[in-house]
């Protein structure tokens, strides 16, 4: 079965927005063995959308559209679908009531213009939007979703479940396994694992993400055992760089290991400025073991909140192994993590360049401090420092506890 | 003049790569007033590329292709263009010599397969590639570039200069102005501003971002004055919801106002768990006025680090107006911000549901506490709390200081 993705929105063509919706859609459709033949991005112009639908209809079985379901004058996707299908736009009383209730719930006055959000071509099926206003719709091989990613994520699973049942698609046609590495270059992973993929029908690729590089293996369910064997071999070759699989992330893995070893923790951040705490607090249920975070950006805060010695700051500087060490000593939980560095763009010197970061980790009375120099702009240096701190914590917890 | 962009490459459809080339191409073409009608992403399959070129040819004047110019078997872009134009593929001796020299220069042996990189449809013009191997080509309204971004960036200016001369295109640069709102629904903005856009040639749209909703106005430089007039009228209508323009963000605006009023600041976070500090520390140069952040996730930390009274926590709870108030009192800087709330997914009750957040702001000895109930998952509630805290701070600083 073949599909096309149509992204509607002038802003997607003039550089204002990077499209992530189509990546999500492709992944979801791939699970059911539906191939994406092509992706089209069009402006909010009736004729152009119409032509595009017509072109896709002649080439694929299923069209997924994203964008243009809102209430404003440039939201015309449903109108064009109706016209293409020779249907009129209708409003179902029940859907209108649900919409009005949503407006009451969020405390925004409902205006006539908003009725448009529940308009749909006569005969179209709707999928309930739990996180926004306009429902997704489906009619005659065309599904239309809002352009707002979280609304798409909310409704796409409902749609694809329904569609798979309707067309007897089996979900487990495709089997995907991700192995997640950190701290190793793509070319080195490639060199290490390339020879393992000699079997026909097992496809692999590398996906570079913020939290590491994924080795994604894709095949059919019948090859699952073979993938497991390859997985073992990959661990044998580059296991030291692997921190998880599939839905694992650095922070979920770190919290899982901390919880398993029944240790509470806290963090003291300088250059990462709350990003490490924020990332860890993103893990649901962390509150039972996370005690506190100190964003000790000024020297004053390092001294007062963490008991870093004034002498240490004077002699070695705020960005130093000694300071990172005293920062973790200042926190009284079982485990403590500290970061201190120069995120840039200013503040670098020859000895202490922009990108220099010290990461301190204390597990009870054992202290580890590592020095890194990260490349990139302010945001990049801070993100890399957070990822490195989490990866180092995972490694230490795996080995030493 | 209208153009289409065709991106060639199976990897662009399965989520392995995010496309940035088309954003660059769109910006360059916009400078000459060339509109992008649509963008198509296709797999490395001859028939599909052919069909796509055919579809574009029927709709636009200029096709820009990216990808598929390399030496390997899946690089078929030039072959398809030749076949579409009814030309044979040729190799010019001079271009072959240049290519061979490049191989000598980088010390890679030249193989027969590499000849393909200088093949082109008979009659096509080439543009020299200073940073890679395959030149870009142009024939009959179709230009083809490599998919590697730095090679595209190297040759696109050469192409567009030549093309603009050939077709007498003047650079009538596009003028874009963004007005950034917060805390007002898209439909209400639309209602307020719709009547202001009566002029021809001034196009507007709404872009929903994490940090607010943008009103984007787009026109040519010659209409700049008209946009300024409209901008003033927009401020008159919904000024209370506007916090900035163009590159402004909530955090940059907040830091700018704090710096202007010469006040230092610190934050105390519970539910946002470091995200507020991290967002503010993302602003370069903030270190002179940001003193510290306390992620007081546990009651213990609230008491010990911020001096919140145990009684307050016992009587009113950690998520309460009183606690938010005592949190900002516990920080000793000129300005202090606090958040305390229930981010979910667990921990909600009937009286204090998931999404309930108290935001405290202290400007010297004036304290403001606001109560909000945000919808969405854990990540969403935390992000909204951060944005709301920043927006409220901006409003207070604008009004009261």
TrEMBL record, chains A, B:
Report the InterPro entries cross-referenced here.
CinA, CinA-like_C, CinA_C, CinA_KH, Competence-induced_CinA, MoaB/Mog-like_dom_sf, MoaB/Mog_dom
Q: What positions does the domain MoaB/Mog occupy?
A: 4-167
Secretion signal: which residues?
A: none
User: Which residues lie in coiled coils?
Assistant: none
What family is this? Belongs to the CinA family.
Among PANTHER family, the record links this protein to: NICOTINAMIDE-NUCLEOTIDE AMIDOHYDROLASE PNCC, NMN AMIDOHYDROLASE-LIKE PROTEIN YFAY
The name this protein goes by in its record: CinA-like protein
Q: Which source organism? A: Fusobacterium hominis
């Amino acid at each position: 079965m073949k599909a096309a993705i149509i992204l509607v929105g002038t802003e997607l063509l003039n550089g204002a927005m990077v499209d992530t919706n189509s990546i999500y859609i492709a992944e979801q459709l791939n699970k059911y063995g539906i191939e994406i033949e092509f992706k089209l991005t069009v402006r909010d112009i009736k004729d152009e959308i119409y032509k595009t639908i017509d072109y896709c209809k002649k080439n694929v079985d299923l069209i997924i559209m994203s964008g243009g379901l809102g209430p404003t004058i440039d939201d015309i996707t449903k109108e064009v679908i109706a016209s293409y299908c020779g249907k009129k736009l209708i409003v179902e009383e029940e859907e209108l009531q649900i919409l009005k209730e949503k407006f009451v719930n969020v405390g925004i006055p409902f205006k006539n213009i908003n009725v448009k959000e529940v308009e749909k071509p006569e005969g179209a099926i709707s999928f309930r939007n739990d996180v926004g206003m306009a429902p997704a719709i489906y009619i005659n091989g065309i599904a239309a979703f809002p352009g707002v990613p979280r609304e798409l994520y909310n409704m796409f699973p409902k749609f694809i479940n329904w569609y798979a049942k309707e067309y007897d698609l089996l979900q487990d046609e495709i089997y995907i396994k991700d192995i997640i590495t950190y701290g190793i270059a793509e070319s080195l992973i490639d060199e290490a694992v390339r020879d393992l993929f000699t079997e026909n029908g097992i496809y692999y690729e590398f996906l570079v993400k913020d939290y590491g590089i994924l080795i994604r293996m894709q095949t059919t369910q019948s090859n699952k055992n073979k993938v497991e064997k390859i997985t073992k071999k990959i661990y044998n070759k580059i296991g030291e760089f692997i921190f998880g699989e599939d839905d694992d992330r650095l922070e979920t893995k770190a919290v899982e290991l901390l919880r398993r070893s029944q240790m509470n923790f806290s963090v003291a951040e300088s250059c990462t400025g709350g990003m490490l705490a924020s990332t860890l607090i993103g893990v649901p249920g962390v509150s039972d073991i996370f005690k506190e975070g100190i964003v000790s950006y000024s020297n004053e805060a390092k001294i007062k909140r963490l008991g870093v010695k004034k002498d240490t700051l004077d002699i070695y500087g705020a960005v130093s192994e000694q300071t990172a060490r005293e920062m973790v000593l200042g926190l009284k939980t079982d485990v403590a993590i500290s970061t201190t560095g120069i995120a840039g763009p200013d503040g670098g010197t020859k000895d202490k360049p922009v990108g220099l970061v010290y990461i301190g980790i204390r597990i009870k009375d054992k202290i580890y401090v590592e020095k890194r120099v990260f490349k990139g702009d302010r945001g990049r240096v801070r993100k890399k420092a957070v990822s490195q701190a989490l990866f180092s914590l995972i490694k230490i917890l795996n080995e030493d506890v």
